[in-house]
């Protein structure tokens, strides 16, 4: 194993997504999610690139181009969570923002007040066959609220509820059909 000259990252600087309308995107991220807009860029090709502070020294950024390709739900983005959440290889499935557990219920209320499509409940993710439980219990490792932004991007408020240990890594990585699929 090579350790000399190891690459050391300090987390995610930003995630860059594409929006269909920068004004709607700015209104949503600054107004509903209360993420300050801290940098705007006009691109030489007529597009824009805007950055929002999502807390903890992290940012979410958006590109906008008048001639961007159309959205492709079910391919490049989630069609409908939780029952139609599969997306294509290389796509972004969803973006999760860390949130304190005590703030999840208030976040649900804020999404409801703003008329934002959301899951209407906090999901308790556990290791059961379904992957979630209706009630909180000691096996729940993250609690989540899922919603979409004006661009159809699936977002999540996620609250980790316990520390992870070696016992949490117990599945072998999968390989098989679909592994070598290339675009047609």
Entry summary:
The chain is α+β, with helices and mostly antiparallel strands and 184 residues long.
Main features:
alpha+beta; 184 residues; Catechol 2,3-dioxygenase; four-stranded mixed beta sheet; 2,3-Dihydroxybiphenyl 1,2-Dioxygenase, domain 1; oxidoreductase; 2 helices; 2 domains; globular
Q: Can you list the strand order of the major beta sheet? A: 5-9-8-6-7
- Give the integer mean of the pLDDT values: 88
CATH-defined architecture of the largest domain: Roll
Q: How would you describe the shape?
A: globular
Secondary-structure-based class equals alpha+beta
CATH topology of the largest domain: 2,3-Dihydroxybiphenyl 1,2-Dioxygenase, domain 1
Estimated radius of gyration: 18 Å
For the termini, the CA-CA separation is 37 Å
Oligomer: single chain
Major beta sheet summary: 5 strands, mixed
What does this structure look like?
This protein is α+β, with helices and mostly antiparallel strands and 184 residues long. The protein folds into two domains: 1-69, 2,3-Dihydroxybiphenyl 1,2-Dioxygenase, domain 1; 73-165, Roll (2,3-Dihydroxybiphenyl 1,2-Dioxygenase, domain 1), CATH 3.10.180. It has two helices and nine strands; from the N terminus they run E-H-E-E-E-E-H-E-E-E-E. The chain has helices spanning 22-32, 104-113; strands spanning 14-18, 37-42, 48-55, 58-64, 95-98, 123-125, 132-133, 142-148, 154-160. The protein has a five-stranded mixed β-sheet with strand order 5-9-8-6-7, with helices on one face. A four-stranded mixed β-sheet has the order 1-4-3-2, with helices on one face. A hairpin with a 6-residue loop joins strand 6 and strand 7 (132-133). The two termini are 37 Å apart. The mean pLDDT is 88. It comes from Erythrobacter sanguineus. Keywords: Dioxygenase, Oxidoreductase.
């Amino acid at each position: 194993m090579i350790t000399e000259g190891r690459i050391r990252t300090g987390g995610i600087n930003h995630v860059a997504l594409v929006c269909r309308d920068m004004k709607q995107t700015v209104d949503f991220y600054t107004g509903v999610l209360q993420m300050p807009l801290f940098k705007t860029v006009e691109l030489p090709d007529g597009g824009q690139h805007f950055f929002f502070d999502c807390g903890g020294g992290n940012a979410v950024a958006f590109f906008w181009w008048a001639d961007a390709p159309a959205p492709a739900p079910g391919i490049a983005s989630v069609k409908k969570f939780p029952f139609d959440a599969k997306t294509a290889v290389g796509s972004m499935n969803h973006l999760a923002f860390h949130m304190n557990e005590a703030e999840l219920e208030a976040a649900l209320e804020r999404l409801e007040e703003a008329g934002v499509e959301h899951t209407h409940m906090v999901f308790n993710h556990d290791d059961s066959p379904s992957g979630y439980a209706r009630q909180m219990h000691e096996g729940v490792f993250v609690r989540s609220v899922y919603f979409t932004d004006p661009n159809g991007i699936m977002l999540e408020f996620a609250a980790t509820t316990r520390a992870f240990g070696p016992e949490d890594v117990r599945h072998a990585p999968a390989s098989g059909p679909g592994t070598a699929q290339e675009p047609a």
